[in-house]
Amino acid sequence: MGLILFFVFDGLKYFNLNQISSTYTRIDAYVSLHAYKALFIYMGIYVTAVFFSVPIKPFLKIIGGLLFGLWIGFLAALISATFGAMLVFLCVKYSWGEASTAGKVTYISKFKSLVQNNPISILLVSRLLPIPFFVPNILAGILKVKNSVFFFTTLIGIIPVTFVYVWIGTRVNGALVADDIYELIDWKLMLAFTFLAMLALLPIFINKFKK
């Protein structure tokens, strides 16, 4: 949603294209010379950001596409996000006492009933909804969800959003190469933003459908 507002209010005008291009050129040169090391550093930063719930994951996905291309960037972001989420989940699951699953907190109690009845579908949907990434990680750990269920629902559930953000990163790459930041604005980018906006509005549609 933040990216959509950025383009709606023409946030590009506040960027110094020459400075951005210069910085990108230096980083891209390093990636070209030290591809594996750069990829390892990127994935390490991503896993750390997920583990400590630093809210920069959309930006990191875009960086992945910008520096490593669509498919390598996509796989790196997907694996890193899943691995980081798994670490949080396991830490919570094996350190949270069994007595704490009684549901003293309202939202934990509600989430517990939903997960117990439909663990796979609920966890998959939670990855598509615009809720903080750490929330399902922690709640699933508290509720002792099966490791395999959490792993595969996270891996599969974050594919659509991860792919879109990484693809946007490849568009930024093309704009920098063309030396025209407005080069990335076309119907494909608008379609990507429409998809992200629809995901953001999904909870509203779900509530209306229930009524």
Describe this structure in words.
The chain is mainly α. It has one domain (2-210). Helices cover 77% and strands 0% of the residues. It has helices at residues 2-8, 17-33, 35-51, 57-68, 70-93, 106-117, 119-128, 134-142, 147-157, 159-177, 187-210. Helix 2 packs across helix 3 (35-51), helix 3 packs parallel to helix 5 and helix 7 (119-128) runs parallel beside helix 9. It is globular, with a radius of gyration of 19 Å.
Low-confidence stretches: 99-104
Strand content: under 5%
Taking all residues together, what is the mean pLDDT?
Answer: 80
Continuous helix count: 11
Number of domains: 1
Could you give the order of the helices and strands? HHHHHHHHHHH
Radius of gyration: 19 Å
Terminal-residue CA separation: 26 Å
* Tertiary shape: globular
Number of strands: 0
Major pleated sheet: none
Secondary structure: helix percent: over 70%
The assigned structural class equals mainly alpha
